[in-house]
Amino acid sequence: MGRVRKVPARPLVITVLVAVAVGGGFGLYWFQPWKLWQDRTVEEALPPLAETSAPPAASSSSTPTTPTGPQTLASGELISHEHATSGTVKLVRLADGSRIVRLENLDTSNGPDLRVWLTDAPVKEGKAGWHVFDDGQYVSLGRLKGNKGSQNYTLPEDVDPTRYTSVSIWCDRFDVSFGAAELARV
Question: Percent helix, strand, coil in the chain (nearest 5)?
Answer without folding.
Answer: 20, 35, 45
